[in-house]
Amino acid sequence: MEKKIISPTLALIVLLLTIWISFSKLLVLNFVIIGLTILYFCLSRYWKKLLYFILVPLLPALGSAWAIIVHSSNYKFALLIFSRTYSFAALGLITATYISLVELLKYFEQHGLSSNIVYGLLVVIQALPRIQYETQMITKSSRLRGIFLPFWSPYYYAKAIFIALTWQPQISEAMTIHAYEDFKARTHYNKYTIDKIKSLFIIVLFSIVVILLLIINK
Fold first, then answer.
1. pTM value?
2. CA–CA distance, 156 with 150 (Å, rounded to integer)
3. Transmembrane region positions (predicted)?
4. C-alpha to C-alpha distance for 216 and 138, rounded to whole angstroms
C-alpha cells in the first residue's frame, strides 16, 4: 500500500534553514522564522506550544546576548544571537510537531539506509515512553521515602540502562518473530513515497521566501 508523506521534504527544508541560520548574519531571517512560528501557533490556537516557545529559549537567549554585550558592547550582534536562539527553537519545535521520525526512518530504509540502523532507532523510539514511565515511578517512589532526586541524578540513567539490558532479549525475539534478518532484502506492506504536490508547494513557498529575503538584504 502506497503512503504519501512530506516528512523528508520538511526535514530537508529545516536542515537548509538550520545551516543558513548558523552562518548567516541576516537578522531579518531570524525575525521571519520567529514571526511565522508565533503567527501559526496563534492561528492554530496551540497556546501551550506557544508558551513553551516563548519561555524555554528565553534564558539561553538572554544569557548569550548579555555575555556579548558585557564583553564587546556590540548590541547588533547580541540581538542577532538572541534571535538566532529563538530561530533554532522554532525549527526544533516544527521538527518535533510536524516531522514524523518513524515515517522518515522507514522512508530512508526503503531507499537504501541500512535496516540495522533503522530498526535499532525504531526500537529506541518505541522504548522512550516506557523509559519515561519508569523514571516517573522512580521519582514518585523516592518522594514517598522523603528523597527528592534532581533530574541529573544517576538513578535515572542507571534505570534506563537497566531497562535496555532487560528488554534486549525480548526485542531480539520480537524482531525474529516478525521475520527480521540481518542483511536480507525485505518486502514492505506500506511503501512510503513523497507527496509531490504538497512537497512542490512547500519548495515553491520556501524559494519565494528566500528570494524575498535576499532582495531585502540588498
1. 0.76
2. 9
3. 12-38, 50-70, 77-101, 199-216
4. 54
